[in-house]
Amino acid sequence: MSHMIEVIRRSSSLGPINMSEVLLSLTNSIICTAAFGSKYGGSGDGNTRFQGILGESHEIIIGFGIADFFPSLEWINRVTGFEDKLDKVFHALDSFFEDVIEEHLNPGRPKPEHEDFIDVMLRVQKDVSQAISLTRDHIKAVIMDMFLAGTDTTFATLVWAMTELIRNPRVMKKAREEVWRIVGEKKTVEDEDLHQLNYLKLVLKEVLRLHPPVPLLVPRECNEKCNINGYDVPLKTRLFVNVWAIMRDPQFWENPDEFWPERFTDQQFDFTGQNFQYIPFGSGRRRCPGSFFGMATVELALASLLHSFEWELPAGMRKEDVDMSEALGLALHKKVALRLVASPRVWRKT
Ligand code: HEM
C-alpha cells in the first residue's frame, strides 16, 4: 500500500491521475503478493510476465464464446481462431503456475516472512491427516480462480467507491474525517484501524449496492424441474439472478438511485447472503469465498487514499459531469476512466 501512496504522491504534481490505472495495479499487486509471495507483487520480472498473460486471458474470457450460447455453432469457435487463442493462453498460464510452484518447492528458497497462498496449499498437500488430497492441478485451479474472480471485482469496487465519493462531497468529507480521526498522524493505515472505520464500512456497503461487480452472479442450472409463482421451469434451465436490479428495486429501497450510506446504519445487512434483498457477494454454496479478503483489501486501500490525500475533480469539471456509464468485462466496470487531482495531506500540529 505504501508503494501506491508513493506513486500517487510523485504523480500528483503532474496533473490529474488516472485512478483506474493506479487502482488496477494496486489490486494486482495485493493479490499477486497473497498468492505467490512478495517477489510477484511489485514491478519485478515475475509480476510483469504474469500481468501479460493475465491481460490476454481476460480478453479471451470476456470474448464471446458463441458455443456457450448456441452449442450447435461450436464449429465457429474453430473457424474464428477462438479455440486456438484459448489453448495458447491456457498453456501460458499453466507453465507460469508450474514455474511458481517449482520455485516454492525449491529447498534453497529463502524462508519468507509470511506464507503465501501457494505455501499454504503445498503445506496442506503434504498433511496426510487432511480428508482431501490436493493434486498439483487442484492447486493451479484454485490460484486461477482466485485471480480471475478476485482482481477485477476488487478493482471495480475501488473505482466505483472513489467515483461515488467525488460525486458526493458530503459523504467524502464525513468518511475522510473519520479516517483522519481514527488513523491520525500515523504514516500508514494499519489493519487494526479498520475495525473502527464504521462510516467507511457503510460507504462500501452502499457502493456495492449500487455497483455490484458481479451483477448477474454466476449462472445456476436447475437440477430438477419445478414451478415458481405459476411458471414451469424445465430441468437444466440456466438461471441468472439480477442482483443489480434487486438492489435498486424501489419496493425494497427508499430512493434507490441515491447514494446514501446512512441507509445501512440501522439495517443489519451483511455480506453473508442471508437476506436476499442485499447480496453483492451472492448467496448459498456458490457464494463468494473471497468476501473477507476482498473487503479487507478495499477498506485498507480506500482508507489509505483518504488518509494520505485530498481528492478533487480536474479544474473546470463539475460532479454532475462524471460519466457513470458501465461496461461489463469480467466485472461491471466504470466505462470511462476516472481522473482525479490528488493533494498530499499536510499534517499541521495545533
Ligand atoms: C469486492 C470484491 C468482490 C466481490 C464484490 C465479489 C463478488 C462475487 C460474487 C457476486 C460471486 C458469485 C457468487 C454467487 O453467484 O452466489 C463471486 C464468486 C467468486 N469469488 Fe468473489 N468477489 C469479490 C472478491 C473476491 C476475491 C478477492 C476473491 C479471491 C481472492 C474472490 C473469489 C471468488 C471465487 C473463487 C468465486 C467463484 C465461486 C464459485 O463459483 O464457486 N472474490 N464473487
Concise overview:
The chain has 350 residues and is mainly alpha-helical.
Q: Given the helix and strand composition, which structural class is it?
A: mainly alpha
The largest pleated sheet is described as: 3 strands, antiparallel
Low-confidence stretches: none
Please name the CATH topology.
Answer: Cytochrome p450
Task: Walk me through this protein's architecture.
- The chain has 350 residues and is mainly alpha-helical.
- It has a single domain (2-37, 112-344), classed as Cytochrome P450 (Cytochrome p450).
- The chain contains 13 helices and nine strands.
- The two termini are 28 Å apart.
- 28% of the residues are buried.
- The mean pLDDT is 88.
- The protein binds protoporphyrin IX containing FE (HEM).
What keywords describe this structure?
single chain, 350 residues, mainly alpha, Cytochrome p450, three-stranded antiparallel sheet, two-stranded antiparallel sheet, 13 helices, 9 strands, globular, binds protoporphyrin IX containing FE
